Amino acid sequence: MRFFKTLAIVATLVAGQAQSQSCGGDFGGFVGGLKSEAVSMGYDRALVERFFANVRRDQSVINADRRQGIFQRPFLDFSRALISQNRLNNGARNYERYRSIFDAAQRQFGVNPGILLAFWAFETDFGAVQGDFNTVNALVTLAHDCRRPELFRPQVFAALEMHRRGDLDPRTMTGAWAGEIGMVQKLPSDIINHAVDGDGDGQITLKTSQADAIMSGASMLQAKGWRANEPWMHEVALPQGLDLTQTGLRTRMSVSEWQNLGIRPTHGSLPSGSLQASIIVPQGHRGPAFMVFDNFVTLFEWNQSFIYVTTAAYFATRLTGAPVYQAGNPDTGLNQDQMRTLQTRLVARGFDVGDVDGILGANTRAAVQDVQAQLGMPADGWPTPALLRAL
């Protein structure tokens, strides 16, 4: 399946498009609304009818969306589940096999090969598992569902644009349950805006061309803010007595300022002292600690999960020579039900935790850190049974 015949880039497809239809309700009526909006956007009615002709609500997509239990695991468990010796070995082999492509991606877009290998591994096991969900069904189902319609509704029209160009067959295009396509799992709008013909054959085939997939992933990261020749993460050791309220992504200092507070690398040396950085402790101050930089924050443009991004960034350091993290001895965390209870109690105290979903995301971590400080507990953003009892 080919994507673009040319390298034309659409800067914005549906940015600012008014959402004239709410989510939910009768699925057939919802699809009718999408058709009407597409026609109002200037698409030929016959094209629109062909695009939506066989669309259906896919309950398996909803089930997959609700079944993301792995994101509830703490960092040590999550990272050990995703980073196997087999993946490390395959990462090294794929780097050697496609070294010229990775070198080209780094020259053109400034993205380190380790980052691209990490996401390629996590997304599809280097292209082996790309998903067999019908892409249009998945996108329309998730646009109709009321959990994240603002994310998926624009992607329906991006897929329609791909179909108009002859680059997506709504009957046969398949991918991940969330509508991503190809070896590095990109949504239609990112394919339109950032896909690259990496192998120079005049087509962009993200499902079958390693060069196209690698270069397109690098292109997207650069467009989202990746800074060439800058680091993304380095493991560090915390000094005794560090003010833990300074940990987390909300606090930024120069590397030199962190060093003056006693932060030290666990291996090698830290980068330039003038670079701005944060200190994250994904499983609390008794677990691994990392200094992270602007490029780490850019990775949230690829995936919004804190635990996923942290693990991918760490895996990228391993692929580029870093040793295994110092696991430490973290305090016991909370199970999913306890986390939901904690989130509910935090909301009752006026904190914004995002969704009450039992997942320790960035908003919940920030709220936990603030309430820990209020209660005189170690304010590292890691929720424990002791914190739950205190609330």
TrEMBL record:
Output the PANTHER family linked to this UniProt entry.
LYTIC MUREIN TRANSGLYCOSYLASE, MEMBRANE-BOUND LYTIC MUREIN TRANSGLYCOSYLASE B
Question: This protein is called what?
Answer: Membrane-bound lytic murein transglycosylase B
InterPro entries referenced in this protein's UniProt entry, alphabetically: Lysozyme-like_dom_sf, MltB-like, MltB_2, Peptidoglycan-bd-like, PGBD-like_sf, PGBDSf, SLT_2
Membrane-spanning parts: none
Q: Which domain of life is it from?
A: Bacteria
Please give the NCBIfam families that the UniProt record associates with this protein.
MltB_2
Against Pfam families, the record matches this protein to: PG_binding_1, SLT_2
Q: Cite a single GO BP annotation.
A: peptidoglycan catabolic process
Q: Which GO terms describe its molecular function?
A: peptidoglycan lytic transglycosylase activity
Q: Has the keyword Iron-sulfur been applied to this entry?
A: no
Q: Does the keyword GTP-binding apply?
A: no
Broadest EC class assigned to this enzyme: lyase
Q: Where is the Transglycosylase SLT domain?
A: 30-316
Annotated signal sequence range: none
- Residue ranges the record marks as coiled coil: none
Which residues are in the Peptidoglycan binding-like domain? 336-391
Q: What is its EC number?
A: 4.2.2.-
What species is given as this protein's source?
A: Roseinatronobacter ekhonensis
Swiss-Prot/TrEMBL keywords = Lyase
